[in-house]
Amino acid sequence: MELKLFRTLWGVTAPWTQTVSELREAGCCGIEARVPHTVEEQQALARRLQTSALEYIAIVFSGGGVIPAQREMPEQHLARLRERFEAAKKLNPRFVNLLAGNDRWPLAQQVDFLGRAHELAQQYGLICSFETHRATSLYSPWLTLEIIAQLPQLRFTADISHWILVSERLLNDPCDDFSPFIERVHHIQARVGYDQGPQVPHPAAPEYRAALAFQQQFWQQIWQSQRERGYRQTTLTPEFGPDGYLHHLPFTNVPVADLWSLNAWMARQEALHFHQFSSQSGEENRNDPS
Fold first, then answer.
1. Roughly how many angstroms between the first and final C-alpha of the chain, as a whole number?
2. Dist. CA 47–CA 93, nearest whole Å
3. What CA–CA distance (Å, rounded) separates 222 from 218?
4. Contact 191/162 with Cβ under 8 angstroms?
5. Closest by alpha carbon to 77, among 99, 108, 57?
6. What is the rounded distance in angstroms from the CA atom of residue 158 to the CA atom of residue 85?
7. Which CATH superfamily is domain 2-287 in?
């Protein structure tokens, strides 16, 4: 199995040529970014992807943004998805990473909506990976497990930093069994969360060693499951970001770290981690074309 690294464009303000140069230096093969809203922006992104020979993971929000419009109901989300999936299809993404639904809906409504969203993606010929994210239908690990019991066909993007924050602890209690979820993860977003926040100040800091180790163990369980499911490639996006995630010094509002340095460190670290995983499993010694 091969690891394919992607760069998030969340918080990226550098010129495109610099962005591409940096991501290639970090070992990334493409970008993970939102589907642009206008036709002109979509065409510009398509040209950039083709010119730079980059792969693309498309990000779509059923609620219009990270925080869904609270008055909107599932039918409005589905109407938006039709338009967003149509736009995504034209960009030929590897798959769509979908932030879906609203955390305020009751379970029955969540299940009905997510099932219909999955079917809609299939109608457009898109692979859809549902992201675990606060404010969405999958904000809670416990609710997600209940949804899986009724919709086992769903595939997921694992960003468990959100679940750690929601649960206010590392999810490593003997009672915690996430096998049904791990067995359905399609994509990993590698941001390190901790019990009081979705993003540590720096993943290399020794005071967050336990948080990093737990999440790396979780990601390795996903790799093991994917290999058993026959995956020839696995995708991972380091996703440290701004918008209150990146820590700032009080009064000065100075960031405690450079955002790209965090993601570049994470990319290198997980490339090494994956190499160790493959070596321990004996995969590198096989004559496997993947």
1. 6
2. 13
3. 6
4. no
5. 99
6. 21
7. Divalent-metal-dependent TIM barrel enzymes (3.20.20.150)
271 token code pair: 């490339």
Angle among Cα 186, 191, 195 to the nearest 5 degrees reads 115
Q: How many residues does the chain have?
A: 290
Digit-by-digit pLDDT tens for the chain (290 residues) are 999 999 999 999 999 999 999 999 999 999 999 999 999 999 999 999 999 999 999 999 999 999 999 999 999 999 999 999 999 999 999 999 999 999 999 999 999 999 999 999 999 999 999 999 999 999 999 999 999 999 999 999 999 999 999 999 999 999 999 999 999 999 999 999 999 999 999 999 999 999 999 999 999 999 999 999 999 999 999 999 999 999 999 999 999 999 999 999 999 999 999 999 999 877 654 544 43
Q: Can you list the pairs that 241-245 forms with residues at least 24 positions away whose Cβ atoms lie under 8 Å?
A: 241/8, 241/10, 241/11, 241/191, 241/199, 242/10, 242/11, 243/11, 245/191, 245/197, 245/198, 245/199
Cα separation, 107 vs 103, in Å, equals: 9
Only one residue has tokens 């091969």, namely: 2
Q: In the structure encoding, which two tokens stand for residue 166, read together?
A: 């929601």
Token pair belonging to 85: 């999936």
pTM: 0.96
Q: Are the CB atoms for 30 and 56 separated by under 8 Å?
A: yes
Virtual torsion, Cα 202, 203, 208, 213, nearest 10 deg: 180
Cα 129 to Cα 58, 256, 277: the distances in Å are 10, 32, 24
